[in-house]
Amino acid sequence: METPQKLEHLTGEPTTTDLKLPPLKIGEMVVDPPILQAPMAGFTNYAFRQIVRGYGGAGLLATEMVNARGFHWLDEHEAEFPDRLWGVEDEARPLAVQIWDNQPDVMAKVGRRLVEEFQVSVVDINFGCPVKQVTEKAHSGSYLLREPERMGQIISRLVEACAPTPVTAKIRLGCSENTINANEIARVVEESGAAALTVHGRVAEQYFKGQADWDRISEIKSYLKKIPLIGNGDLDSAEKVFRAFRDYNVDGVMIARACLGRPWLFAQAAAAIQGRPIPPEPTLNEQRDCMLEHYKLVVERFGEAKGTLLMRKFACCYAQAKPGARHFRKHVANVATKEEFFEVVDKHFPCDVPSEPVAS
Q1: 284-348: which CATH topology?
Q2: Residue 77 annotated as binding?
Q3: Region 7-273: CATH code
């Protein structure tokens, strides 16, 4: 068995310091540990969340972002719920559902439905998505950072509709480097009744390029009087999570893209902030088994054809930064059946030692 890693301070000296963080409260709900899984479109579905829960360490999980207007249309036409709500009704709690749109009344109706019928723990509003289909075409997501008054209207209506379930907001620093207004937006979010604010440390025009600005995230704390500040951006190791809490004025952190191929990252981060030895990375064979369990859950829901297609991108995440990852991605990008998927995994997924072939 591998020896658990110890966290390294910037000085290079090993430590297992317990940061003794105060509880993170979102409304009346305690998030323990104060580490949240970010909502990510196309990725954080029920299958992925179940894998994360299996490893532990995430205090609050979240769905993919749900188009409120689309959900409302389906509801009015008595159609099936969006795929992005797969598993939500029966899933363990706490669980947040993130929604987006720019119409306060529509958002309020959907929020109320999520609270009454799905009994979600948190309704989160996406004011941070930089994708053009959401911003330029729908005037939603990070586009609304240029309209603080409208943001306030959306939040207020949702808070009223969802009570007593807490409503939270996720933003970016601004739309561009020349229009950074996160401090002003933070006040609007709090004054409108939101229970927490999550800030991604980039502006929308950056998408995911460059580095997240944690100094600017930290600065926002002084503009909040009651609600917690959650920082997000570039948290790809337990050490970085530890330093985010130690060096910046945040009450919680949110892990995003780095967890997609490493769902055990939450458990490692939780150990780091609690002063426990950090669990080692799973062996390559264990990571492969995790990926196969993920594939099984996806296929059970969507069937072999669609499930295999959806799993291509997840498989690429699991292989990221491993020896032969590029070669594996090249082959897995074209699989269409279970048999093809298992064959590619057997032949090309990195492994520690020869493992048993995958049974199809």
Answers
A1: 1.10.1200
A2: no
A3: 3.20.20.70
